[in-house]
Amino acid sequence: MRLSVNGNRKKLFPLQFNYLSWTGVTLTGFLCSLVWVEIGEVPDLNTFQAMIGATIIGCFQALVLSRFFVHTWLWILSTLIAWSLMGGSSFGVMGWFAPRTESIMVRLSTGLMLGGLTGIWIGFWQWFILKPVVSKSYLWILFSGISWSLGLSIGWIIGRILHSITNIFLGEVVGLIFVWILVGMQTGIALSYLLQKSGRAE
């Protein structure tokens, strides 16, 4: 199946790809998902909520990927599968819940570990879609793991600090927003690099 870009698609999809647009659509997808997915303090999101969140984020990301991929629905599908399987396991759906612990060090260590596993898992499924189009696509798994590891740990720490200052749970929500901003920026830079190395950069 041919996944590469059609030369006329860049004219049909005016939204240019760069790490800022990628960060923007990723964050927008997360914020829109909050209409259906409730943020909590424990990883108790069910599979259905994971499917909703993943589909929304995947659709928004597809808006910028449409300039490079003919079958962007495959990106949405791979993202959906990755998050749904995670949501159906005891692992939980990272990015939509904050840990209960107040310890900064525990949040840091746990965020680094769980974030890394999350990024590798999601990156693995998305790698199947990138492989026919992007050279050295295996690096996407590594980049995704690093991005989620740093993003989740830093976001959880920010959330705890804001929660302790304001004494309201909204601080944790802001922390999760930072998670998605950091993940979006890092994965956006990584994807821009891979596209450039493949001769597909704009």
TrEMBL record:
The chain crosses the membrane at residues 12-36, 48-66, 73-98, 104-125, 137-162, 168-195. Keywords: Membrane, Transmembrane, Transmembrane helix. This is Uncharacterized protein.
